[in-house]
Amino acid sequence: MEAVTRDFFLYLSKNKRLNQLAKGRGSHLAAGKIIGGIDFESSIACIRALNAHGLSVTVDHLGEFVDSKEVAAERTEECIGTIQRIHREKLDSHVSLKLTSLGLDIDRDLVRQNMTRILQTADNLGIMVTIDMEDASRCGATLELFKEFKQQYEHVSTVLQAYLYRTEADLADLMPLKPFLRLVKGAYKEGPEHAFPNKADVDTNYMKLIEQSLLAGHYTGIATHDANIVEFTKAFQRKHRIPMNEFEFQMLYGMRTQLQQELIAQGYRVRVYVPYGMDWYGYFMRRLAERPANISFALKGIVQK
């Protein structure tokens, strides 16, 4: 049943007609509930409110699979402007982005040029930029580019997905760079040739990756709403006496808000992923596909706000 639910929401995430309807009629429903706002300006109040409750943030301008150099240039300018605004407003926020939004599917040199401008700004202002991971077909290129950037810039991090077979080897390969990594289970639909088909195997691999990253002493973002994974991490941290300033939990805006506050009260660091923009529909459907429990969390957030 869980697999059927996942496939259903992934199918919906790619429906262009529903996406257009969501842009036109649904943004007012999503803003302030599952996205920070329709643009960065309208998301600032949301970020300030989260910061006031002890929560750090990472923001993401939604939209991917750009096939125009002009649009990639616009996305680059948007990201640079966001970094500058975060610094100017003294917000506790990182920036997340997808390389496809900067032209990965057009030309790799184009991505290098765009990311160089972004990371120069990020290093100058001390704002972390996280390169989000996409589907398996883009994983290798994303990690190759991340390794290039990491050797030149300090304020760049990336994401590893536990459902891919390759990820344990990727983690080992990145270790010499001492990276800040966000560990996630994975949200795209992948075949059994690339990914573990069973949730139990994904969870086992996820916990293994958490162990390896924490023991290596590299700052780790553990992105999960799964209470079992949260408790596993806390127990592992206590057993191995890992300093609490060497990792953080990460959760989505509008989901598991009570758990976020409980973790803050217990002294843990928590970062909330706050997307913004009109292209929120595909993102939201993939989040629902990740874990059926997200459906109830999301609906509670929409109803209560």
From TrEMBL:
Q: Which domain of life is it from?
A: Bacteria
Gene Ontology biological process: L-proline catabolic process to L-glutamate
Give EC number(s), comma-separated: 1.5.5.2
Q: Which InterPro entries match?
A: FAD-linked_oxidoreductase-like, PRODH_bac_arc, Proline_DH_dom, Proline_oxidase
Q: To which pathway does this protein belong? A: Amino-acid degradation; L-proline degradation into L-glutamate; L-glutamate from L-proline: step 1/2
Q: Keywords for this entry?
A: FAD, Flavoprotein, Nucleotide-binding, Oxidoreductase, Proline metabolism
Q: Which GO terms describe its molecular function?
A: nucleotide binding; proline dehydrogenase activity
> Can you quote the record's cofactor note?
Binds 1 FAD per subunit.
What EC class does the entry list?
oxidoreductase
Locate the residues binding substrate. K98, R286, R287
UniProt-annotated binding residues for FAD? M133, Q161, K185, G186, A187, K199, T224, H225
From the UniProt record, list the reaction(s) this protein catalyses: L-proline + a quinone = (S)-1-pyrroline-5-carboxylate + a quinol + H(+)
Q: Outline the extent of the Proline dehydrogenase domain.
A: 47-297
What cofactor does this protein call for? FAD
Q: Which residues cross the membrane?
A: none
Q: Which SUPFAM superfamilies match?
A: FAD-linked oxidoreductase
Protein name stated in the entry: proline dehydrogenase
What is the scientific name of the source organism? Domibacillus enclensis
